[in-house]
Amino acid sequence: MIHKIVTSLIFLCLTVGLSAQEKRLSKEEAVRLALEHNFGIKMAKNLTKIADNNQGILNSGYLPSLTGTAGANYNDLNSTTEYPGQFDTSGGAREDLEIDHAESQTYNAGLNLNYTLFDGLGRLYNYKRLKEQYQLTELQARETVENTLLQLFSIYFEVARLTENENVLKQALEISLDRITRAEYAFEYGQNTKLDILNAQVDVTNDSINLLNTKQQLANTKRDLNVVLNQSLSEDFQVDTIVRFIPRLQLDELIAQARENNVSILQAERNLNINEYDIKVNRSGYLPQIGLTGSYGWNLNQSAPNSFLPGQVIPGSNRSSLTFGLGASLTWNLFDGGRTTTLLKNSKISYENQELLQEQVALEVDRDILNALASYENRLNIYEIQEQNVLTNRNNFERSKEQFQLGRITSIEFRQAQINLLNAQTNKNLAKYDTKLAELQLLQLTGQLLNVEL
């Protein structure tokens, strides 16, 4: 009965995941999908578009403003004019003058043009500031891309590690299964006891559970990767488990150029430029502003009949006119209560703070690079040691296997050699991908994460 349960568990472990056809997802393809579909990268690109719109000529203040106006009025007049004590030429009394529904209309339309010819150079410096703001937004978008790619590779390499661990556990399960078969044959021929079979079955059960847990972790991590790539959560794939490290000479060259390429240092420089333009914009408040104005208008007045003299009705009339005007204005704010002075002083203080922040960022980046380099070298050494450890444990396992088949060592000693090999292989996998992630973090600090072949 135990043998049937174990066999069913083994079959389940070996067949889970094989029903679906898995595609291969290379590192290059993963990067391409992330750049195209990742939510964070998409939002960063949209922010860059907004900054690009803001730095355009339409938002510069250099273009004139043109406004159009139009209007119409309608009047309906009913009037009665009385002439008390008034007589006509024949001596008779004059009749009252009544005007009913006397309609009048007025129409007007015009264009007004305003242009700031000079504003103390504030417009110029603000335009340059918007240019710097756009470049800063581009750097912020680049930082988002770099952080997203680090997140991507962290999950991608975890998928690769679990994939390799899965293969290692499958091999361990096959070895344990072979032990059961050998133990059963030996028991049938009286060469060992039932205890050897039970020990083998316990080891198979443990290996099967470890394999099932690894498969579950692998499935969960693949879903995490699908979220970063913004694709269906049910998408299944195989990843590339081959890792290549950058030669140390090339790495040293990248580190030497880190201050020119690190995204944090570049952002600090852009912020310093923006603060410098803020000073110039605020200083422009001391200078006068010169503006030009122009207008063009049309008016039409259709008047109603009216009476000014007794007994006389003056008929309505139409009058139209066209007007054209030009003008210039000079505005100089001689004293604004100290507002401009306060803004200028504060902008200078902000500039000084930004200078201090720039120095701090540069120092922190230098520290982070040294720490990342030391971490990378340490992990690389550990990986090389783990590689050698795998070779040693594999040789030990092969010899133990021969001795076990000859009956010179017990199943417990053989199992220990198997566990040692299993641990060495999984530790090597962990060290390999930890080392690659440390290298990628170092590349990000040098500003070359997006420029090197991974």
Automatic annotation (TrEMBL):
Keyword Repeat belongs to the record: no
Subcellular location per the Swiss-Prot or TrEMBL entry: Cell outer membrane
InterPro entries in UniProt: OMP_efflux (IPR003423), TolC-like (IPR051906)
Primary localisation category: membrane
Keywords tagged on the record: Cell outer membrane, Membrane, Transmembrane, Transmembrane beta strand, Transport
SUPFAM superfamilies (UniProt xref): Outer membrane efflux proteins (OEP)
Family assignment from sequence similarity: Belongs to the outer membrane factor (OMF) (TC 1.B.17) family.
PANTHER family in the record: OUTER MEMBRANE PROTEIN TOLC
Name recorded for this polypeptide: Outer membrane protein TolC
UniProt source species: Zobellia uliginosa
